[in-house]
């Protein structure tokens, strides 16, 4: 009898599973089960059981898995249960960003610089578009695609340049995909993108609060919280939203490693995305990529709360207008002519 007990004890000590807590998920697994939790916590536990059966936990706990594979599985595990960015503490945001950076590094061998920088005090961003100067070159579109890691296969574009006939603004008749020399005689050009409305209808319809307006006026999306219902796409009167029908494909050598959590970090299939005024640039005091790339100076970006900013000068000295002002969305995107 004594010998049998000793054999059982030896088997427990040498077991290579979660029972002895030696695997990468052992302690966390036990702590999760022992915690008192609310309804959401209980759902997490139930889901955890299903995922265990599916193999996620088994991968992390496998005796034969390498340390790197275990770390990847652990990072995937944490990503699956990630909360809404709006509700995170600063420490949680920091850890989330570090996890994303490490995950990319493990999978691609390069280290991205992902920022979680928040809005600056006394900053409200606005944009102005000089119709007289735009020549339809689309340098802005190309710069935006590269800066914001947009899918190359589907040719996703946040910015659209519309070619109108002189004397009318009719987006139904405008040409968006022209393949001729520009500027074309008898035509003028207008760019559209997300207008970062003061009263954004897209935010109001989101059932999971995955999109919201920041204090500096930038309307953002938490890609990890988005469920891809596309209500926001339907609600936007300016065609400013884009949906990922497939996993975005960006050549590794073309990936922009200077990223922001709410901006140009790599997205996944089935989520919404849009222009963010290049939040990874604007919150560092730089112009969006489209502004910097415009060869004619048709695009103006700045702080609406700064009386000395160029955009404030435009609003004070030019005859400006906004699209669909009757809707009350208050877009922070103005058009004007010289």
TrEMBL record:
Gene3D superfamilies: 3.30.70.20. InterPro entries: 4Fe4S_Fe-S-bd, 4Fe4S_Fe_S_CS, DsrO-like, ET_IronSulfur_Cluster-Binding. Residues 217-246 form the 4Fe-4S ferredoxin-type domain. The keyword Metal-binding applies. CDD domains: PsrB (cd10551). It comes from the Bacteria. Transmembrane segments: none annotated. The keyword Iron applies. Keywords: 4Fe-4S, Iron, Iron-sulfur, Metal-binding. This is 4Fe-4S dicluster domain-containing protein.
